[in-house]
Amino acid sequence: MDIDAMLSKPIFSKLSPEQLSAFKNLIVKLQNKTMTEALPILMQFMANAPKGPPLSVEEQDAMTEVVLENLNESERAKFKMIMALAKKRG
């Protein structure tokens, strides 16, 4: 997977350099992780994400898609379920 190519998509152009770097680091940390291993990493990222322009729904969706690309089908289903629960609570 070419992370730089994925993050060069126009949807990510409004992210600050700090946000982009943090997200790139997140993707690297998530590679080859199970959902159980990835969840604490994601939670830490969300708690410590750098400040910048607020993310649009489209940017959030694009970031989610990048994360999903790193997961196998079973883990992808678990992630989607967790995201759906989080949206209900949010």
Provide structural commentary.
The protein is mainly α. It has one domain (15-89). Helices cover 70% and strands 0% of the residues. The longest helix has 17 residues, at 73-89. The mean pLDDT is 84.
Number of strands: 0
Rounded to an integer in angstroms, the radius of gyration calculated over CA atoms is 13 Å
Q: Describe the largest sheet.
A: none
Task: Report the span from N to C terminus.
Answer: 31 Å
Q: How would you classify the helix and strand content by structural class?
A: mainly alpha
Q: What's the helical proportion of residues?
A: over 70%
Tell me the quaternary state: single chain
Shape: globular
Percent of residues in beta strands? Answer: under 5%
User: With helices defined by DSSP (H or I, 4 residues minimum), what is the helix count?
Assistant: 5
Series of H and E elements: HHHHH
Spans of at least 5 consecutive residues whose pLDDT stays below 50 are none
Tally the structural domains: 1
- Overall average residue pLDDT: 84
Quickly list its features.
single chain, 90 residues, mainly alpha, 5 helices
How do the strands and helices of this protein lay out in sequence?
Blueprint: H1 3-7, H2 17-30, H3 35-48, H4 57-69, H5 73-89
Outline:
The chain has 5 helices and no strands.
